[in-house]
């Protein structure tokens, strides 16, 4: 299945420049963490689901890197850049071996099915 995104040919160059420069250092930081670690959880404060994901991973004994950006009252624009980059609309964003697997509930389902362990060893 192809990800449904607006083709760059249909974006005015001025708008495209603004899109490309939407917190690139933050996106680069997340990309670097994903490249360097097997499991990365990207979250935010005051949201219970990043905490849920971390508790699930702790219970599994799975090491992970946690990156947190603001909360409901701060840093929403930088978090928006991550949402636009990843295509995932909520937090946490959980990456396993460079692949976005979704959020806390998705993590729980993958563990229950045994697929999470397969992803870890891939």
Tell me briefly what this model is:
The chain contains six helices and four strands; from the N terminus they run H-H-E-H-E-H-E-E-H-H. It has 122 residues and is of the alpha+beta class.
* Helicity, as a percent range: 40-55%
Counting DSSP H or I runs of 4 or more residues, the number of helices is 6
Corresponding CATH superfamily:
Glutaredoxin
CATH architecture: 3-Layer(aba) Sandwich
Given helix and strand content, the structural type is alpha+beta
Strand content: 5-15%
- Kindly identify the CATH topology: Glutaredoxin
Largest pleated sheet? 4 strands, mixed
Computed over alpha carbons, the radius of gyration is 15 Å
User: How far do the termini sit from each other?
Assistant: 22 Å
GO molecular function: protein-disulfide reductase activity
Protein name: Glutaredoxin
Pfam family, one: Glutaredoxin
Organism: Duganella lactea
Describe this protein with a few key phrases.
Glutaredoxin, electron transport, redox-active center, four-stranded mixed sheet, Thioredoxin-like_sf, 122 residues, transport, globular, 51% helix, 14% strand, alpha+beta
How would you portray this structure in words?
This protein is of the alpha+beta class and 122 residues long. It has one domain: Glutaredoxin, CATH 3.40.30.10. Helix content is 51%, strand content 14%. The protein contains 6 helices and 4 strands. Strands 2-1-3-4 form a 4-stranded mixed β-sheet, with helices on both faces. 19% of the residues are buried. The model has no long low-confidence stretch (mean pLDDT 96).
């Amino acid at each position: 299945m192809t990800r449904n995104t607006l083709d760059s040919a249909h974006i005015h160059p001025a708008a495209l420049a603004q899109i490309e420069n939407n917190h690139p250092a933050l996106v680069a930081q997340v990309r670097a963490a994903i490249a360097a670690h097997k499991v990365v959880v990207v979250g935010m404060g005051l949201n219970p689901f990043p905490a849920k994901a971390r508790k699930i991973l702790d219970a599994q004994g799975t090491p992970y890197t946690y990156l947190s950006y603001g909360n409901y009252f701060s840093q929403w624009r930088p978090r928006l850049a991550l949402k636009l980059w990843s295509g995932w609309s909520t937090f946490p964003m959980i990456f396993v071996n460079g692949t976005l697997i979704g959020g806390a509930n998705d993590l729980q389902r993958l563990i229950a099915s045994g697929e999470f362990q397969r992803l870890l060893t891939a």
